[in-house]
Structures are given as C-alpha cells and as structure tokens.
Amino acid sequence: xxxxxxxxxFAIFFAVNAAALSENEIAPVMSGKVEEAVSILKNxxxxxxxxxxxxxxxxxxxxDYVTIAKIxxxxxxxxxxxxxxxxxxxxxxKRLKSSFIDKLALYTNQDMKVLGTNKPKSNRLNLETQIxxxxxxxxxxxxxxxxxxxxxxxxxxxILGVSIVQTYRxxxxxxxxxxxxxxxxxxxxxxxxDK
Length: 195
Description:
Elements: H1 2-12, H2 26-42, H3 51-59, H4 65-73, H5 82-104, E1 111-121, E2 124-132, E3 137-146, E4 152-159, E5 162-163, H6 164-172, H7 179-187
Antiparallel strand pairs: 1-2, 2-3, 3-4, 4-5
C-alpha cells in the first residue's frame, strides 16, 4: 500500500492548473520537469514543508485542472449552477494538493523517468513514465489532449492502470450524491487514495 501512495504522490505533482505544450514539447519538457522534481525531493537542504510548493510550481501549468474536475464529477456537473461549480473546482484542487502533501512524507528516494509517448487516437497522447522502486518498476501514464489552439494539456493520470479521474468519479456517485455530499467527501471524508 505504501508504494501506491508514493505513486499517487508522483502523479499529483502534475495535477493542478492549465497551461500549454505543443505535441512535440511534451516528452522533453516533462522529462526535464520530472528530473527537477526528483532533485527537489532528494535535496535534504530543502525543508520538507517547502517541497510541495516547489514541486507544484514546476507542474501547475501543464494540467487542465478544470477538465479533470469536470470529468471526475461526470453527469452531476450539469445540475450545478456557476457558484456550485466554482466551489467544486476549488475543493477538488485543494483535495489533490492535500493528498499530495500527505503522501510526500512516504517518499524514500525513488526515481521517476519518462519512457516516451504514444497516440491511442489522433487527439490523445499518452506520456509513459515509470517509478523506479527497489524491487520493481511501476507504470504511471499522463494523458494529454489538445485544446482548440492545439495546446496539449493533461486531463487524466493512470497509476498502475487505474485512472485518477475514474477513482474520483466512482466516489462522487456519478450523480447519485447531492452537491453538499460531494463537497463533504472532498473536504472531510477519507477517499480510497487517502488510505
């Protein structure tokens, strides 16, 4: 279970707000950012409580956080007004950051490397990465899509074949929970990734 938490922590490095990459920039830029993140984690001169902000600063710009939140909420999104959507997006981002910070304490000098990319569809690109463990390696796949300006952003992450978006979506009940229950789950309840 500890390795799963570490894998989630590496994935959450990337998961915050939106910015852009061209398709050809994805592998080289993300490789460099991954190296910087691992260097920060291994640097004993940086206080542990300062590391999350430094890592978020590396990756904030490459994820489409709003799209991740929308897909995670599923069909329930259509029932929310603008104020509720804003509350949900804010709580979702806070939850991802909080989950990352909690898991960072489990980090014990693992490395992460970018293996390459593949395109399952013309408008989708997967960045294949690995966490290098003591006994085995673990797959983490960052899924990118292009916006209308052909800027590529992350919309989901698969850890050991399990989608973060689908994990959250199953917890939100895909429309079965009330808005207040969803906010309560984000703000208070222990979701599977917290265990």
